[in-house]
UniProtKB/TrEMBL annotation:
InterPro entries: DUF38/FTH_CAE_spp (IPR002900), F-box_dom (IPR001810), She-1-like (IPR042317)
Species this protein is from: Caenorhabditis remanei
Lineage, uppermost ranks: Eukaryota, Metazoa, Ecdysozoa, Nematoda, Chromadorea
Pfam families to which the protein is assigned, alphabetical: F-box, FTH
Protein known as: Uncharacterized protein
Ranges for domain F-box: 9-47
Domain DUF38 residues, every copy: 150-202
Length: 320
């Protein structure tokens, strides 16, 4: 509140207060909510953006009674806030309050539970119970980031379906996830409307990007999970995926056997390591999915039908 004292907050009219709230950080808004009931109502009227919010386990304390943190990063003001006081229901309520305003759109929502204990399961059960009890609370986020141990997999599909599919642009799955679960995810509206994917099958700390390493066995299912999904969705030009195998070599020819179109190699100027490039028609007229196979993995990109070289190489050269 110190940055607002010069305004004599209690003397401002509601219009002025709203302008101040719009320019205030997430932490300042939390403090303003405590001033009065009317201020609380005003703060909740202003949508929140440019933050990342999530739940993460206590990395220093893994016990039966350890509680996950609710964590918030305000990107504009570069502020971080976290707490695990009270019970799970209190933190879940604070999380849901952000999305009670339907105009709120945050950058990223993440769930970070990598330990192999079962503490995350009761938490996700409580989270879904609260979300089911408040169906108007839809999670509005550009990025869904799941970094959880296999014990939490049973909740993955239900949690993803609580996100607004129209605003979701990126899905990150960084954990131990079964083939069956990935196939189920690929049938959701959230997955179909997303333009970027990060899929890894082992824990890794730090920022993910679109060039991720996966087990070679997963590549065998790339046709079903990625290519088919891209071909049947109305995706923008330059939407792409990259899957690199976690070994020096894999049998890329096995992937060719999965294609439901004649295997035809097309010419696209790219790396010398490329062994096969396949073009797929898409549901959207004038766009094609171009997929490259190499000894190191699979990558695909949505291109304009008449500008394949330009679109494909622009995307992957920029990523490099």
């Amino acid at each position: 509140m110190s940055e607002l004292t010069e305004f004599e907050w209690h003397k401002l009219n509601d219009d002025m207060k709203l302008e101040v709230i719009k320019r205030s950080s997430y932490l300042t808004r939390c403090r303003l909510r405590k001033c009065s009931k009317s201020d609380k109502s005003l703060v909740d009227r202003v949508p929140i953006s440019e933050i990342e919010i999530g739940f993460a386990e206590d990395e220093y304390r893994h016990t039966e009674d350890s509680k996950p943190y609710l964590m918030v990063h305000d990107a504009v003001n570069d502020e971080n806030w976290s707490y695990n006081k009270g019970d799970d229901k209190d933190r879940i309520a604070d999380f849901m309050r952000i999305f009670n305003n339907r105009n709120t759109l945050v950058r990223r929502v993440y769930f970070d539970f990598f330990s192999d204990d079962s503490n995350s399961c009761p938490f996700f059960s409580k989270l879904l119970t609260e979300l089911d009890a408040h169906p108007k609370c839809i999670i509005q986020s550009e990025h869904f980031d799941w970094r959880c141990h296999q014990a939490s997999e049973q909740y993955l599909l239900q949690v993803l379906e609580k996100f607004d599919s129209h605003n979701l642009k990126k899905i990150s799955l960084n954990g131990i996830i079964s083939e069956e679960k990935v196939k189920a995810l690929s049938e959701t509206d959230q997955w179909k409307n997303t333009s970027k994917f990060d899929i890894a099958t082992s824990p890794s700390f730090g920022e993910l990007d679109n060039d991720v390493k996966v087990k070679s066995e997963y590549i065998q299912h790339a046709e079903n999970v990625h290519m088919k999904n891209y071909r049947e969705s109305d995706r923008n030009v330059a939407s792409f995926f990259m899957l690199d195998v976690d070994q020096e070599y894999f049998e890329w020819k096995d992937v060719l056997l999965l294609f439901d179109v004649p295997v035809t190699n097309v010419s696209v100027a790219s790396e010398s390591s490329t062994t096969h490039t396949q073009r797929f028609e898409m549901s959207t007229r004038g766009r094609v999915l171009v997929v490259e196979l190499s000894n190191y993995g699979v990558k695909g990109c949505v291109c304009r039908e008449e500008q394949i070289d330009e679109d494909f190489n622009r995307v992957f050269n920029e990523e490099d």
